[in-house]
Every structure is written in structure tokens, then in C-alpha cells.
């Protein structure tokens, strides 16, 4: 698996954790009630940087300390 970001940079990643969070707290629309708990994936790259899922489908991620969205590529 890879996360693809700006300039088509690709970073190999692995699944690090699955976290349970409140859907309303992270702004996932259409995921039941605002207080409903959902699971999000946390990926880690070779340098130990963590990227958390930012969409409901599991294809968009954001590294800690960054505002740039990265896309998950499986293959």
C-alpha cells in the first residue's frame, strides 16, 4: 500500500492501528448520529510518520502536523 501526495510522491505504508472516534468530532457526514462511534485507520510510513484517515471510505489520509490530504493506493 502507498499514500500518494503532492507531486505524485508515493510513500509505502502499513496499517498501524484502527481507532474508534466520534463521527461528529471529525466531520464525517452521513454516518449516523453525530455522536456515533466509527472506526478509522491509522497508517505508518517507513520513517514512523502516522497518517490518519480523513474520509468515510478510507481512501484519504493526513499525516500528523500537515494539512495536505494523501490518497491511498493499493497494489
Can you characterise this structure?
It is a single chain. The chain is mainly beta and 75 residues long. The protein has 1 helix and 6 strands; from the N terminus they run ββαββββ. It has a 6-stranded antiparallel beta barrel with strand order 1-2-3-4-5-6. A hairpin with a 6-residue loop joins strand 4 (50-53) and strand 5. The protein is globular and about 35 Å long. The N and C termini lie close together (6 Å).
Write the layout of secondary structure elements.
Blueprint: E1 2-4, E2 10-22, H1 23-26, E3 37-45, E4 50-53, E5 60-63, E6 69-73
Antiparallel strand pairs: 1-2, 1-6, 2-3, 3-4, 4-5, 5-6
- Through-space gap between termini: 6 Å
Task: Count every helix, treating DSSP H or I runs of 4 or more residues as helices.
Answer: 1
* Strand arrangement across the biggest beta sheet: 1-2-3-4-5-6
Structural class: mainly beta
> Could you tell me the mean pLDDT?
89
Question: Count of DSSP E strands?
Answer: 6
- Low-confidence stretches are none
Please tell me how large the radius of gyration is. 13 Å
Biggest sheet architecture: 6 strands, antiparallel, barrel
Amino acid at each position: 500500500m502507498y499514500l500518494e501526495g503532492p507531486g505524485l510522491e508515493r510513500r509505502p505504508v502499513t496499517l498501524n492501528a484502527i481507532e474508534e472516534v466520534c463521527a461528529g468530532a471529525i466531520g464525517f457526514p452521513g454516518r449516523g448520529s453525530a455522536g456515533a462511534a466509527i472506526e478509522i485507520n491509522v497508517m505508518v510510513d517507513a520513517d514512523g510518520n502516522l497518517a490518519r484517515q480523513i474520509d468515510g471510505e478510507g481512501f484519504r489520509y493526513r499525516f500528523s502536523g500537515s494539512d495536505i490530504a494523501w490518497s491511498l493506493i493499493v497494489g
